[in-house]
Amino acid sequence: MSIRILEGFKFTKLPTPLHRLDPRPKFLLTIGLFTVALLFTNLYALLTVLLVQIPLVVVAKSTRRWLRSMKGGAVLAILILVMNFITGATFTFSLSMTIRFLALMSSFSIFFMTTSPDDLGLALENMKVPYTLCFTFTTAVRLVPTMAVDAQTVIDAQRSRGLELERGNLLRRVRNYVPILIPLIVDAIRRSVELAEALESRAFGTSERREPLITLKMKSLDYLTILVTVAFVAVSIYINLYVPLPTLDIPIRMPRIWPWMS
Amino acid sequence: MIRTETLHFAYPTGLEVLRGIDLEIGDSEFVAIMGENGAGKTTLIKHFNGLLKPSRGRVLVDDVDTAKISVASISRNVGLVFQNPDHQLFCETVREEVAFSLRNFGYDTETIERRTRSILETLDLTQYVESSPFTLSGGERKRVALASVLAWNPKHVILDEPTIGQDYQQKDRLRNFILQLVSQRKTVIIVTHDVEFVAECKPRVILLSRGAIVADGPARKILTDKALLNECSLIPPQISSLMHSLTDLDLSQDVIDVYTARACILEAFRRER
To answer: Coil, helix or strand for B19?
Structure first.
């Protein structure tokens, strides 16, 4: 088992316009994509939301890592498809929900792949979020790769003790993860206590107000991003309210086994 | 027997950690793998129970290619104790923790009970049998992790940094325990930076540097070669340094333990008189 899915959410410094973008408009873009994905249930619309992200991935030179995160999300995507379908949704609707999940995951993947935790903290500070909260958030983001390494070590340690993650029925497989999750959680708590003590020893939180060394400044590309995002969301809301979209009916049906199925 | 044939290993990031390791560790041999941080020691031992598969070359455990069988099957014969016990402890009691692996390997309740009791006694953990592993000290947690692996009586035992976090008495106990395992004809492989511990145990020493073996031989020979140790960011044991510094007495230079050193020094005094 591997945790390579997290690669698709890890920041890598690259000289691309998307990496250079101010984190605030970039976050707005992510939220825009997120909102539009939640707005529609139409397959074509959701497919469009997913596809418009591909040029962004290409510009960010992160295609391989994006594909890796998509591949990692495939298991959940299949689960969403199957669960929707067997609980009575049409195949088209189940497929739409799967595409929606991939579009949501992709938008966050692009954001985290191209925004350094430092920039993220800076953006939050500029938005007048209290420093302790900014610090907590950036530390959490920063610790994800460390936790990923820890998770792999825990998996290795338990496999060396004869644990077979893929053995047994669905319930047993879920239970197999208990020996992985508990050491990870305990280790995370222990680590956070140590971190808190280390921070307090270095006088964290002594001054109420902090003066940031670097202040973020928006450039023309940043304003353009805001403009495009707002237009994209506005047009999507308009289409959703007033424009009838073509629908697709894939004639695959689940046999009527549940009482609520018509 | 554990054998590697031109073992190469690179992580998915492309970083090559092992570069052509050729190694043979016989049954009931006692080996210490040493080297600088990042030399590839832990990566190497993870190949011995199949957690990692070679990028090139082969690893054979008791003549079986590790690439062809599951980790669980190899682990029956190869017990690997990880460096940090917190990466494996998860049960409510020490008893449950030790029984976990025995259950995975399908032992019956009576055997599980017997083996758990016996290994906890051997490692001086009986008083903690109903305690939560999380409430124990670092050294005790390390011993619980060790007990949970030794419980199923594997033929080859691999310990990653076993002396970290242990006080001197516990280290001494660990040394005796390892020697006891060797006398029971088990293969014991330890990965360590602790030259003093190795000097007292006197195993065969394999020195790794940047993913390749730079020396392989008896501890007495390797731990007294200053240049070689320097290459791997290690320093000779204190006794060896002492023997080096007593130049006037014309002492033997390949001594690494207290008892031999004492005998040599007494002999030199007798000669002087």
So the answer is: strand
The number of distinct structural domains making up chain A is 1
pLDDT attached to residue B34: 96
> What is the extent of the structural domain holding A134?
4-203+212-222
pLDDT in tens, A32-52: 999 999 999 999 999 999 999
Minimal C-alpha gap between A255 and chain B (Å): 40
Closest CA in chain A for residue B98? A161
Count of domains forming chain B:
2
- Both B152 and B261 in one domain: the answer is no
Share of chain B above pLDDT 70, in %: 100
pTM score, two decimals? Answer: 0.78
Burial A157-166 (b: 16+ CB within 10 A, else e): bbbbbbbbee
Looking at the fold, whether B199 and B243 belong to one and the same domain comes out as: no
Indicate if the pLDDT at residue A3 is higher than 70: no
Give the integer Cα–Cα distance in Å for B12 and B209: 21
Range of the domain at B244: 237-273
The ipTM (two decimal places) reads: 0.86
CA distance A193 to chain B (A): 15
Contact A156 B51 (CB under 8 A): yes
Distance from the first to the final alpha carbon of chain A: 41
